[in-house]
Specification:
Elements lengths: L1 H20 L1 H13 L1 H9 L4 H10 L3 H154 L6 H29 L1
């Protein structure tokens, strides 16, 4: 029974939908509402009771506005309206064609501009890729040059450090040699002084030797020799005195 009721409901609903979708029914419904709009408004919006509404609608309704006029109007809408629409469409065909031609021309211009823009973009992309590739090569070359410069700078820095080290070693050696030369000069000067003293002592000893030799031989010496003898004795005494003073200094 449920299945039968469901089938009946579905069939009724489909039939009603087909009637509503029918152009004639739609035209009649619109026409009927147009001729009976007062009754519809009174039915839905009046504050009176249902009895008064029915009485008002019965008094103000007739076969003409309920059946005849809506039927004629729906007939006109269903039969005449397509011809009217066809005539209007025919009258509009040329302006529509012109409008379509203008729109097509606009679309063609847009497509042409878009194509030109795409070509320019493609050229720009190719140029950009070339410039980018060249710039990347230049950057890579610069990086290699910088690396080589850094390596060369490291080598030069090492050579500079080695030269500074050698220079410092030479300066130290020079200072050592200079101090050694100064020391040797002092020693040489001291030796020269000692040699000079020995030569003076030797000369004085020769004079003393001549003096004692003459004394032994009972020969009178010349006056000049006596003067030299006295000077030699005096110098000998001074040397002995100086030698004794140096010995005392060494002891203290």
């Amino acid at each position: 029974m449920l299945e039968s009721l469901k089938e009946f409901t579905t069939s009724t609903f489909n039939t009603a939908m087909n009637r509503v979708k029918n152009p004639a029914f739609g035209a009649f419904a619109i026409s009927w509402c147009a001729f009976n709009w007062k009754q519809i408004l009174y039915l839905f919006f009046a504050d009176n009771g249902i009895y008064y509404k029915i009485e008002y609608i019965s008094q103000n309704s007739s076969w003409w506005n309920v059946i005849v006029f809506p039927a004629i109007s729906s007939l006109v809408l269903c039969v005449g309206l397509p011809w009217i629409n066809n005539a209007i469409t025919k009258w509009q065909s040329k302006p529509l064609d012109n409008a379509e031609s203008i729109e097509n021309f606009k679309q063609a211009r847009i497509i042409q501009r878009s194509t030109r823009l795409q070509r320019l973009k493609a050229k720009h992309d190719v140029t950009y890729d070339k410039v980018k590739t060249g710039a990347e090569k230049d950057i890579q070359s610069m990086k290699e040059q910088i690396t080589e410069s850094q390596v060369r700078m490291g080598e030069l820095t090492k050579e500079k450090d080695d030269l500074e080290k050698k220079y410092n070693e030479l300066i130290d050696a020079y200072n050592t040699y200079l101090s050694r030369v100064s020391e040797l000069g002092s020693q040489l000067e001291k030796k020269n002084f000692e040699i000079q003293q020995l030569q003076n002592e030797n000369s004085d000893l020769k004079i003393i030797y001549q003096y004692y030799k003459s004394q032994i031989s009972n020969v009178r010496l010349p006056d000049i020799l006596e003067v030299q003898m006295n000077a030699a004795l005096q110098r000998q005494a001074e040397r002995e005195k100086e030698s004794s003073l140096n010995d005392e200094k060494l002891l203290f």
